[in-house]
Design brief:
The structure is a homodimer. Chain A is an alpha+beta fold and about 240 residues long. Chain A is about 25% helix and about 25% strand. In chain A, strand 4 (about 85-90) and strand 5 (about 95-100) form a beta hairpin.
Chain lengths: ~240, ~240
C-alpha cells in the first residue's frame, strides 16, 4: 500500500483548446480506478485560453499608482481585475482575494512559463468545474473513475516558501474528517479534518519542478474515498482563529 | 523518475528510549542514498520521553480560567508551559507560538494516540536536532546518506484542514530557491522559494493515517539536493505580508 507519484511530461507548449485528457493519457500509463491526476493550474489555464496579452491592457490610475516602485502597471491592472479585494500591499506586490475566494500573491496571475514576454496566465475561471470536466473526459475515454486536482503553488501566512495547493477538486475528497474515529488506544479523536487534496497537490508538486515541462502528475495507490471541492478548503476570515 | 512513498508500520507502542533508526530499518526496505525518511513528531516525542502525565500537573489560575468552557485545565497548563505566547484564544482552544517559533493549535500538545487517558505528548524539544540524530544513526548503521524530516499535522490560516508539515529537517533542503533560474521560454523566474520539506511532509502524511500504527514513511526517488532546517520555514510575523 505504497503511493507512487509519476510525472506526466508534455512536449511543447500547451495551446488554447488543448485536449488535456488526451495529453494525460499519452504521457502516462493506462489509468486505474482510484488514480488521482493532478494538473498544474497553468496547464489548465492555457488550455482554457485564460491568457492575457499585456500589450492589450490599459492600466487604470490605481494600477499606475501601485506600480510606482517599478512594477508593470498593465500586469497590476490584470491582478486588480482578477481580485475581489486587495488584502495587503507592499509597493507593487499585492496579496489579493480572488473572485473564487483564494488569498494569494498577485491573485494567481503569473508571468513565468508563458510563451511570450507580454503574456500572463490567469487562474482558471472555475477550477472545480475544470477538474470535473477533465475527470469526465478521462472517464469517457477510459471507463476509469479517477480523481482530478488542479493545483497551484501558493505562499501562505506564517511560513516561508510556496507549496503545491489544491484550487480545483473533482472525484476525490478535499477534506477527510476524523471526527468520531477511535485511535488504537480507544481514545476518540475530536473533530479533525485533514486537507487531503492539499496534501495530494503538495506531493505532486515534488515532480512538477518549475523548469521542466511536467504539467501533470499521476498519484497511484492513495486509498481515496468520497468526493469534494476546492471551495471546502477555503476558510472565511471571520471563522479564522489563526489571524 | 517517479517518487514512491512507502509506509513504515511499527507494531505496538513506541516507548521512551526506543531506537527509531532500528524501527525504521526493520519496517522498510534497505535504504538507498537520497531516500528521505519522514517520522511523525509523535513517534519522535515518545522515543524522547516528551510525555506528560496530567495527573502530575497542577493548573495555574490562568489555566483554570481558560478551561472554564469545559477544557482540561491541566492540559491547558501544559500548553501554556510549551508556549512563548498565546496568539489567539477561543475558550479553551489556544493558538500558541511554541518556544521553537511554530504557531499552532495547543502548542502541539496532543492527547490522541497516547497510551493512556491522562497522557499528553509534547513536540520534541529541538526537532531539527532530533532529525539530525536519527539521520546520523541511520548513516552509522547503513552507510547511507539520507534525509530525515520530523512532521506534524498542523492547521493553517485561511484554509480548512490540517496538513503534514515539517518541524524538523536534516540532510534535505527545507526551501529550494528558484531565484535566477530560467524557465523553458527564457523568462527569468523571480525569487521563488518552494517549501520542499513541507511538501515532503504533506506527501508522507498521505500514508500515515491517523488510526493505523504508521509512524514513519520512506520517500524514494525525490531528487533532493542541499541541506536545511525547519527553522528556515518559520516566517516571523513582522516579515509576513499575508497577515
Amino acid at each position: 500500500m505504497s503511493i507512487e507519484i509519476l510525472p506526466l511530461p508534455v512536449a511543447g507548449e500547451i495551446e488554447t483548446g488543448a485536449d488535456l485528457a488526451a495529453l494525460v493519457l499519452d504521457a502516462g500509463p493506462p489509468l486505474l480506478d482510484g488514480d488521482v491526476v493532478v494538473l498544474t493550474h497553468k496547464a489548465v489555464s492555457k488550455a482554457e485560453g485564460r491568457i492575457v496579452d499585456l500589450s492589450d491592457v490599459v492600466p487604470s490610475p490605481l494600477a499606475l499608482e501601485f506600480a510606482e516602485d517599478g512594477g508593470d502597471p498593465r500586469q497590476i491592472e490584470v491582478v486588480l481585475r482578477e481580485s475581489k479585494r486587495v488584502v495587503r500591499r507592499r509597493g507593487s506586490l499585492l496579496i489579493c482575494e480572488t473572485h473564487h475566494g483564494f488569498i494569494c500573491a498577485s491573485a494567481g496571475v503569473d508571468r513565468s512559463n508563458t510563451p511570450g514576454d507580454d503574456l500572463v496566465v490567469l487562474l482558471p475561471e472555475d477550477p472545480d468545474a475544470s477538474a470535473a470536466r477533465i475527470r469526465e473526459a478521462l472517464r469517457a475515454r477510459t471507463g476509469r473513475t479517477v480523481g482530478v486536482i488542479v493545483a497551484d503553488t501558493m505562499g501562505r501566512p506564517l511560513r516561508n516558501g510556496i507549496l503545491g495547493t489544491a484550487i480545483g477538486v473533482s472525484g476525490v475528497e478535499a477534506l477527510r474528517s476524523l471526527q468520531g474515529d477511535i485511535d488504537p488506544n480507544g481514545y476518540e479523536l475530536r473533530t479533525t479534518q485533514v486537507a487531503i487534496a492539499d496534501e495530494l497537490a503538495a506531493a505532486a508538486d515534488l515532480v512538477f519542478g518549475k523548469l521542466e515541462r511536467v504539467p501533470a502528475a499521476l498519484i497511484r495507490g492513495y486509498a481515496g474515498r468520497g468526493d469534494g471541492t476546492a471551495c471546502e478548503l477555503i476558510r472565511s476570515a471571520d471563522r479564522d482563529l489563526f489571524i
